[in-house]
Amino acid sequence: MSKTRESAGFHPGTPNEARVIDYLLGGKDNFAADREAAEHALAVAPELPMMARESRKFLGRAIRFLVAQGVRQFIDIGCGLPTQENAHEAAQEADPDARVVYVDFDPVVVTHARAILANNARVTVVQADMRDPDVILGHPHLTRLIDLGEPVGVLLIAALAAIPEDEVALDIVARLRQAIVPGSWMVISHPISDGRAEMTKKLSTLFQDREIVKGSRRRSDLRTYAEIEPYFDGLELAGPGIVRTPAWRPGRGEPSVHPESVWSVAGVGRKL
User: Fold this and answer.
1) What CATH code is carried by the domain that includes residue 235?
2) How buried is 239 (Cβ within 10 angstroms: 0-12 exposed, 13-18 middle, 19+ buried)?
3) Of 42, 57, 76, 153, which is least surrounded by CB within 10 A?
4) How many structural domains compose the chain?
5) 3-class secondary structure, 251
6) What percentage of the chain exceeds 90 in pLDDT?
7) Angstrom distance (rounded) from CA 101 to CA 208
8) How many CB atoms lie within 10 A of CB 178?
């Protein structure tokens, strides 16, 4: 392995959270260690692939909704590996002129994303920590594509679950909301422990024990619905509000699963 790949955080023998999710989605950008870790997780929570699919479906629906509201630029924070039903695909299918900036702190994600998105002039990737919204919003790669003087869609799809401190997560949302202009939107989804506290705690412990989130201070349990609601303070929620992910504006033939079987909620709010 080259030093360049090592420095980029490429360690196929160590499970990587983004690659584990890629495996759960049926992707091919994963290794034996990722697949083994995923199978252990599936033994605890066999619904994880369904959860991952429903999250991507929600992302696509939310983006198409925002395009219909006139939004043409998006910032996807904590994006994970580009696999299926990505933000730029949904946005540019709705409007080929849509622009998307992906943001992730994981060097594996950033390296991979840059490689596969290199030929799309309306998409770029920024490596940054979501704890530093000012760094993200001021990054030259972002400002090259995104005009923060115009409405923008900020996407936080399950990203805040990686932030253990409640006050830090709330601060991230507040600072992003403050930075965007009126008419902008925030799209937030988050897994919840309501009704599944013991299982979600076991799953989080498993990920930590297998060093899938190596170096992370990820909390040992998930937040509740009541703890997610404050993320939408200061925003005008689009109907149907904060609901289980499959229940947010399902398309024809959806939801394909019963909403209560998905332990994740989502909402879309506009800054007034």
Assistant:
1) 3.40.50.150
2) exposed
3) 42
4) 1
5) coil
6) 56
7) 29
8) 10
Span 173-205, pLDDT tens digits: 999 999 999 999 999 999 998 877 677 776 666
Q: Provide the domain limits for residue 217.
A: 3-271
Q: Are strands 235-237 and 264-271 parallel, antiparallel or unpaired?
A: antiparallel
Say if residues 121 and 98 touch (Cβ distance below 8 Å).
no
Which pair of tokens denotes residue 191?
Answer: 């897994």
Chain centre to alpha carbon of residue 127: 14
**What confidence tens digit (pLDDT) does each residue in 38-76 have?**
888 888 888 888 988 999 999 999 999 999 999 999 999
Q: How confident is the model at residue 215 (pLDDT cuts 50, 70, 90)?
A: very low
H/E/C letters for each residue in 50-116? HHHHHHHHHHHHHHHHHHHCCCCEEEEECCCCCCCCCHHHHHHHHCCCCEEEEEECCHHHHHHHHHH
Tokens 């695909």, residue located: 89
